[in-house]
Specification:
single chain, about 140 residues, alpha/beta, Cytidine Deaminase, domain 2, seven-stranded mixed beta barrel, 3 helices, about 25% helix, globular
Length: about 140
C-alpha cells in the first residue's frame, strides 16, 4: 500500500513532533483512501511520567476527530506519533494497540529535530507491521 501526502502535511507532522519533544506527540491523519490531506494534532493524554515513550488518544479525542472528519467530507486514515530519540519503527506496544485498518506514521525526533518519518500498517492477523510506501505529492494531498 502507498500513503500519499503533501510536503506541507509532512512538515506539520514534523513540527508537532518537535513541539512535543522530549515527549511523544500524536494525532490523526485525515483524508480519503491512502491520501492524507490534513492532520489533527492532539495533546498527549498519558500521565506525565509516561509521555516520553507512550502516547494516549482518549475516546473523546477519537469521537471529536471522527465528527470533524465527517463534517469535512474526510475519514480518519490513521494515526501519527513521534518517537523521541528512537527509530521510527513500531514498538511491541504500538503493535498491541494498533488497528489493522489504520496507517501509522511514526517520526523520529532526535534532540528536538524531526529527522525521519515512515509509515506502517498492521497485518490482518495483528502479528506484524508492514512498511508502507510514502509518496510526497505537490499541493495539499
Amino acid at each position: 500500500m502507498k500513503v500519499s501526502l503533501s510536503k506541507e502535511v509532512l512538515e506539520a507532522i514534523h513540527r508537532h513532533g518537535e513541539s512535543t519533544y522530549p515527549e511523544e506527540g500524536a494525532g490523526f491523519l485525515l483524508g480519503n483512501g491512502g491520501s492524507v490531506s490534513r492532520i489533527h494534532a492532539l495533546k498527549n493524554a498519558r500521565e506525565d511520567q509516561a509521555r516520553r515513550n507512550r502516547y494516549l488518544v482518549t475516546p473523546e479525542d477519537y469521537l471529536r476527530v471522527e465528527q470533524l472528519a465527517i463534517a469535512l467530507g474526510l475519514e480518519i486514515v490513521g494515526v501519527f506519533h513521534s518517537h523521541p530519540d528512537h527509530p521510527c519503527h513500531p514498538s511491541e506496544y504500538d503493535r498491541e494497540w494498533a488497528q489493522p485498518f489504520f496507517v501509522y506514521m511514526i517520526k523520529t525526533v532526535r534532540s528536538g529535530a524531526a529527522v525521519e518519518s515512515r509509515a506502517w500498517k498492521l497485518s490482518e492477523d495483528r502479528t506484524k507491521f508492514n512498511e508502507q510506501i510514502v509518496q510526497i505529492t505537490t499541493g495539499n494531498g
